[in-house]
Amino acid sequence: ARPPPRLSTGAKGGFAIRAVTGESLREKRTVSLPTGGEGQAEDPAFADEGGGELDRQDIGRAIKMGMSGVRRCYEHQLQRNPGLEGKVTVRFAIDLDGSVKLARLKESSIHNKPVEDCVVAEVASLRFPKPRGSGTVVVAYPFHFSPG
Question: What is the pLDDT of residues 31-58, one digit of tens each?
């Protein structure tokens, strides 16, 4: 029997959260790291987002609660392409009420549009705790998929 597909999150590549306060992760238990890499242009849709804070653990818990939907995105396409694997990173903004205000594909190595679109839609449907502070929280979160 074939082993079940594997899905891991955040652990291998970490995840980044941007808050306009610019405080360092090492200084606090809340996360406020830049989401773009060096030389990487910011997505203009997220230009006015930021300012709130959420604990890394709160974000991780909310994402874990939505993992069954993300897993279904991958498993559905895995039936059509047994060797399908890669990473999908979603960038999203958590609004003041804990809903996802905006979600976009940041990068992908899976090269499968149905999986990418489905994962973005699943992330967009998640609920998070209300951020502290005066604004939204912008997160870049990787999902790693492999067939087993």
Answer: 333 333 333 445 666 766 677 899 999 9
